[in-house]
Amino acid sequence: MSRSHNFSAGPAVLPLEVLQRVEKELVDYKGTGSSIIELSHRGPEYTEVHTQAQEKLKKILGLGDDFEVLFLQGGASTQFLMVPYNYLREGETADYLNTGSWSSKAIKEAKLFGNVNEAFSSKDVNFNRVPTDSEVNYSDNPNYVHFTSNNTIFGTQFRKEPETGGTPLVCDASSDFLSRPIDVDKYGIIYAGAQKNAGPSGVTIVAIRKDMLEKAYTENIPSMMNYQTHAKTLFNTPPVFAVYFFNYVLDWIQDKGGLKQMEELNRKKAEKLYAELDKDDFFRGTAEKESRSHMNVTFRLADEDLEKTFIEEAAKQNLNGLKGHRSVGGMRASIYNACPEESVDALISFMQDFRQKHG
Ligand SMILES: *Cc1c(COP(=O)(O)O)cnc(C)c1O
User: Fold this and answer.
1) Best mutation site among 102, 107, 130, 205 for ligand 1 pocket (most ligand atoms within 8 Å of CB)
2) Which residue's CA is minimally distant from atom 10 of ligand 1?
3) Residues in CB range of 96: below 8 A, 6 or more apart
4) Domain check: are 238 and 280 in the same one?
5) Residue 282 CB: number of other CB atoms within 10 A?
6) What is the pTM of this model?
7) Does 172 sit in the ligand 1 pocket, CB within 6 Å?
8) Looking at the domain assignment, is residue 8 inside a domain?
9) Is residue 7 part of a domain?
10) CB of 186 closer than 6 A to ligand 1?
11) Hey, which residues are catalytic here?
C-alpha cells in the first residue's frame, strides 16, 4: 500500500484507521448483508449511527443538553444563507468579521436578509490577519456575531473566540472543527462542512443552542431552511454515508485522547513547519505571525518563479496538494487532524533539500 503525503485543503486526508474500518465492513454492515448506505435512514441500523454520532460529538466538544446537533446537506455555503434566513430580517443588524473569502461569501448572503455591520475587515491587507478584540467595532444590538474561526485560503486562525460582550457567536468552523477545545458557552451556532477536518464531503455539522433555536424566525421560511424543522424530526434523508464515516472519525479522535490531544499534535506539526519557513528569507509565510493557522500553512518562495518547480518536485516525492489558492498564490500545506506528523516531517525534509539545491 502506498499512501500519499496529502496536503489537500479539502476534501482532505482522512484517518487511515477509519478508511480501513469502513472498507472492512462496507459490503456487509454488521451481518445485515447490506452496506449501511443501502439501508433505510429510518431503520434501526442507521438510527443508531446517527444518534451515536450526535452523542459522541456532544461529549467530545463538551456540549451540554442545551445544544442540538444536526447533520445537514448543502455544505457550509448553505449555512451562509440559512443563518440569516433564521435570524435576520429587514431593519435588523448582524455583525460579521470579514477575515477572508469564506467570510465575504457569508456576508454577501446575509445582506439579502438585513443589515450587515462589517465589524472588522482585513481585506485591505489581503486577509493576512485576524483581529485582536480591541480592533472590532460591534454595533449596538446585533442579532448575532458571525466569524470564521480558521481561514482556509489565507492561512489565518483565531487563537480564541472574539469577545462579543454576550452576543451569541455564530461560527463557520469548517476548517478547524474538532482540531482543539473551544469555549462552547460563547456559541449560539457552530457549523462545519465535514470535508476539511472531520470526514467526507456531504454532511454539514450544525450544533445549535436551544435558546437560539427557539428564537429562529418561523414565518416566511421554507421548511428545509428552517433549523426548527431539522431539530424536531429527521425531516428528509440525511447524508448517510458521510454521517456514518464521521461517527468513526469521532471514535478515532476519542481514541487519540480527545481535543486537547488533537490540539497538542496540531500545534506540534504547525510549529515545526513555521520554524522551517522562518529559518531565513528563502521561504516566507504569508500570514502575520500572531494570526497563523495551525491547519493551513500558506507560504511563498522569495523567488516566486521557483514556486512551480517546488510544487512539481514535491509531487515527485509523493508530497501532494501543495498548490496555494490563486488569491494568495504560492503554496499551502493543509495539515489537519488526520495529517500524520510523518507527512509534515517529509515536507520539511523536502523543503531543506530544495533550499540547498536552489538557495
Ligand atoms: C471549504 C469551506 C467552506 C465551503 O464549504 P462547502 O462545504 O464547499 O460549502 C466554507 N467555509 C470555510 C471556512 C471553508 O474552509
Assistant:
1) 102
2) 76
3) 103, 106, 107, 110, 116, 117, 118, 119, 145, 146, 147
4) no
5) 17
6) 0.98
7) yes
8) no
9) no
10) no
11) 102, 172, 196
Angle formed by the axes of helices 44-61 and 240-256, to 10°? Answer: 40
Q: At 296, which CATH number?
A: 3.90.1150.10
Residues 243 and 274 in one domain: no
246 shares its domain with 263: no
Q: Give yes or no for residue 157 CB within 6 A of ligand 1.
A: no
Do 97 and 202 lie in one domain? The reply is yes
CA of 75 to the centre of ligand 1 (A): 7
- Greatest CA separation found in the chain? 64
Residues 134 and 282 in one domain: no
- Tell me which residue has its CA closest to atom 14 in ligand 1: 174
The answer to whether position 147 is within a domain reads yes
Q: Which atom of ligand 1 is nearest to the CA of 204?
A: 7
**80 Cβ below 6 A of ligand 1:** no
Q: What is the pLDDT along the chain (359 residues), one digit of tens a residue?
A: 789 999 999 999 999 999 999 999 999 999 999 999 999 999 999 999 999 999 999 999 999 999 999 999 999 999 999 999 999 999 999 999 999 999 999 999 999 999 999 999 999 999 999 999 999 999 999 999 999 999 999 999 999 999 999 999 999 999 999 999 999 999 999 999 999 999 999 999 999 999 999 999 999 999 999 999 999 999 999 999 999 999 999 999 999 999 999 999 999 999 999 999 999 999 999 999 999 999 999 999 999 999 999 999 999 999 999 999 999 999 999 999 999 999 999 999 999 999 999 98
Q: How far apart are CA 252 and CA 48, in angstroms?
A: 18
